[in-house]
Amino acid sequence: MNEFTETKTERVCVADLRVGMFVSKLDRPWIETNFPLEGILIETQEDIERVEQVCNFVYVDHKLSISSVAEPITLPTASIVSIRACRPKNAGKNSSLRNRLSTLQVANDGWKTNYCSQSYQSKSTFDKEVKVAEHVVSDISVELTGVMSLIRKNEQPDYERLEQRVGLLVESVVRNPDASGWLSKIHRSHNNVFRHCIRLAIWACIFGREIGLEKVEIRKIASALLLTGIGKSQLPSSVLENFSLSEPSEEYQKHVELTCSELKRLKHIDSDVIEIVANYTERHNGSGFPEQKTGNSIPFRARVAGMIEEFELQLNPYSETGHLAPSSAISNLFKVKDILFEAELVESFIQAVGIYPSGSLVELDDQSIAMIISHDKEKRLQAQVAVLVDGDGKALEKPVVIDLQKGVKKWTKTKRYSISKGVSSAGIPEGVLYQAHENLFKKQKSWLGLVG
Where are the domains of the chain? Predict the structure, then answer.
């Protein structure tokens, strides 16, 4: 068994499917069905009937399942609420979670109509855009370092330069989101907080593009998430290392006030950016901080930013342990829809990102480990992948690129591979990833030269 694997699946007859099970694989290609995702959480009897119409058996991932009991799921459930049901320590005595939930604003505030007016098409190849995006991400890292340095010296940084670089990132992601998705995994930084914030900004651009936000709106959310590093970088390292997503410490919560205080001193800062930072740690059910706001009283942009960070911190925690595969993080988001985040926003995020986003690690059916290079949104399981570790767990000297749609020609036959499951970002040493990037994009004129 490959030491890098994370999840386990079981073959199940469709007659034995139960509500709460997570179907990770069908007995036929996903593209032959009408299911929108490469993964289904069975919520109702109707979901089971839909699967029965196209399959005889499926594979169930028990780790991603909410339960293995054939009881209807009614969200929220007690087990799910416990993820963030406790009242923040700084909440007043009269601001109980029950009281806040009783006044929860659950009506949709029309964010799709008000904000999602664009439709973007890829206009650049992955091979071309990854080289452009690498320079953009590097420049953002340099500018962010400069901003932080001047703030520590109590001097006025040139925020406009950083904002311009974020604008270039938005343009790059609009042209081809897969390139920046890949770089979010590869980018090096001397500061883990900076690296975390750059990943947040990239996710903001990818999600914003997919739901059709105006570029200026994408830039605001990406900039705000990037700038949360101002307050986070001022926290003791022990606060970040001991961070708990389910119960952030009072010390950690201070980063919001620290960031906003510094942002208000900056020249040319957009007030919307400050608003996002001030509210992005609030949660739908009132369990967030600093003001325990609920529902639509949390600004839309801040709701997006908060969900993105919740997702990213599951993939890449501040500490060196606890990394989840995207499929697991997606499942966790699904469990807290209409609890921590409104259902429609969560569902839009899941549709946009998928369980195998570009830059994520996967195990193929021969137990080798690969990294997603790019894929068609409608055919996410037919991706281009770079195989980094063979089925015996040995890192390859050079990555082998496979187009899962076409397979690999061997003599007169075509060997086809498929994605078996997701692997966490800690599944492969970073050195292997960096070397793969070097071989694919710096030692080759094109990564296509390594196609198997």
Answer: 9-74, 111-353, 361-450
147 contact partners, CB below 8 Å, separation of at least 6: 157, 158, 159, 162, 230
Please indicate, yes or no, whether the overall pTM of this predicted structure exceeds 0.85.
Answer: no
**pLDDT on residue 275:** 98
Higher pLDDT, 40 or 325: 325
Fold for the domain defined by 111-353: Hypothetical protein af1432 (1.10.3210)
Alpha-carbon distance of 303 to 411, in angstroms, equals 53
Listed in sequence order, the residues at least 6 apart from 405 whose beta carbon sits closer than 8 Å to its beta carbon are: 379, 382
pLDDT over 70 at 69, yes or no? no
- 213 SS3 class: strand
Tell me the CA distances in angstroms from 198 to 158, 228, 248, 312, one per residue in order: 18, 10, 21, 11
Task: Please tell me the predicted confidence (pLDDT) of residue 109.
Answer: 66
Cis peptide leading into 290, omega within 30 of 0? yes
Residue bearing tokens 């930072």: 277
DSSP state of 265: T
| Residue 337 bridge partners (DSSP) | 341
Structure-model confidence comparison of residues 107 and 156, the more confident one: 156
What is the residue-wise DSSP string for 61-106? ETTT-S-SS-----SS-HHHHTTT-SPPTTS-TT--HHHHHHT---
Nearest to 381 by CA among 395, 370, 396: 370
DSSP 109-159: --HHHHHB-------S-HHHHHHHHHHHHHHHHHHHHHHHHHHHTT----H
* pLDDT, position 189: 63
| Rounded-to-integer distance, Cα 317 and Cα 310, Å | 10
Q: What are phi and psi of 194, to 5 degrees?
A: -60, -45
Contact 43, 68 (CB under 8 A): no
Spacing of C-alpha 443 from chain mean position:
29
Amino acid at 286: G
pLDDT range class, residue 188, cuts 50, 70, 90? low
pLDDT digits (tens, 9 = 90+) for 322-366: 899 998 898 899 889 999 999 999 989 988 888 889 889 999 989
pLDDT band at 129 (very low <50, low <70, confident <90, very high): very high
Q: How far is CA 33 from the centre of its chain?
A: 25
- Strands 419-423 and 413-415 come out as unpaired
